[in-house]
Description:
It catalyses: ATP + protein L-histidine = ADP + protein N-phospho-L-histidine. One of its GO terms (molecular function) is phosphoprotein phosphatase activity. Its main location: membrane. Its EC number is 2.7.13.3. The longest helix is centred in the middle third of the chain and has 37 residues, at about 195-230. By secondary structure, the chain is of the alpha+beta class. The radius of gyration is 43 Å and the shape is elongated. The chain is about 50% helix and about 20% strand. The protein has helices at about 1-20, 25-55, 70-100, 120-125, 130-135, 140, 145-150, 195-230, 235-270, 280-295, 315-330, 380-385, 390-400; strands at about 105-110, 115-120, 160-165, 170-180, 185-190, 275-280, 300-305, 310-315, 340-345, 350-355, 405-410, 415-420, 425-430. Helix 8 runs antiparallel to helix 9 (about 235-270), helix 9 (about 235-270) runs parallel beside helix 13 (about 390-400) and helix 10 (about 280-295) runs parallel beside helix 11 (about 315-330). The strands form 3 sheets. It has a 5-stranded antiparallel beta sheet with strand order 2-1-5-4-3, sandwiched between helices. It has a 5-stranded mixed beta sheet with strand order 7-9-10-12-11. Strand 11 and strand 12 form a beta hairpin.
Amino acid sequence: xxxxxxxxxxxxxxxxxxxxxxxxxxxxxxxxxxxxxxxxxxxxxxxxxxxxxxxxxxxxxxxxxxxxxxxxxxxxxxxxxxxxxxxxxxxxxxxxxxxxxxxxxxxxxxxxxxxxxxxxxxxxxxxxxxxxxxxxxxxxxxxxxxxxxxxxxxxxxxxxxxxxxxxxxxxxxxxxxxxxxxxxxxxxxxxxxxxxxxxxxxxxxxxxxxxxxxxxxxxxxxxxxxxxxxxxxxxxxxxxxxxxxxxxxxxxxxxxxxxxxxxxxxxxxxxxxxxxxxxxxxxxxxxxxxxxxxxxxxxxxxxxxxxxxxxxxxxxxxxxxxxxxxxxxxxxxxxxxxxxxxxxxxxxxxxxxxxxxxxxxxxxxxxxxxxxxxxxxxxxxxxxxxxxxxxxxxxxxxxxxxxxxxxxxxxxxxxxxxxxxxxxxxxxxxxx
Length: 432
């Protein structure tokens, strides 16, 4: 405004000077010309300002006369607001990335319980599709009756456990609903499927251990009570020896169960085994020698063993796995049956240890559960032959620790093949 007044004053002065020299009409003409020129310049400046207004992200046009003092603070304020908006946008992006990285699912709802946002974990848990399910009622999305009753409460002091089917798989979810902000709600979901399975496994394990130890303890207790209550002279030396042998057998059975449980615990304490190259032919020959003693000449053994093939690992663990598969084959193969033991290198570079028998075989529905602790296809036969029910569980853990894979192929009444395949990076050839 000051510049405008000064400019008008200058043209007025020029008009007065010109009027004094050339006459009043000429002076007024000069003054009018000045005002007209100012109007034209002002129009041009307004035109440039109008163009800038359509794209205020750019700096304002320079030299727009009196408008400079108006546009400069406006542009500074716009630039400051833009920086603040950019910073807030970055913070929101960081928060959204953090929400996406959460191991738990997160779902936001408005005051009408309509879905407004969810992270990818929640999509995986419940099967949500954000673009499709946005602004839909959570009660139409999550149709579990337990959730319906839970969500319609006035307060939610704790989570609710839901069992849902998602893509053919059953999932166990802990769902917690909580209010936040004004008229907003947050749902947090946590997948506890594996935790429930582990808890079930733990309960089954405790029950199985109790059951497995109860039988030999009952036998021991019964014999000890019998020998205590009966007069010493009423038992013959032959009966005493028979009772003592049976008690020793049950004590050894409990000892074997405890030893296998300790072995399993040790194997589970570390995910992998490093070790050193182990000459497997030596381990297998020693296991075969012990197996033939256990067989008492009742089985035919066929050997197909590569003598120079080694595996990097723990020799004691590998010996346990080798022995367990041989012992199982003997226990479940009838007299005069054939047991074929192979140790060879495959075309893909893997090293494979396999035990094939002509035994009773295994039904297809039992094969997936064979490596479970204390799982037996034929409990009576396993106990009669001294099995603890932990051999295949130990073998599976030994294989896992050596990055190997245990596979089982069997047909009821036609025998079985148990194989452990070691990866190429653990296989080596011993130089002569």
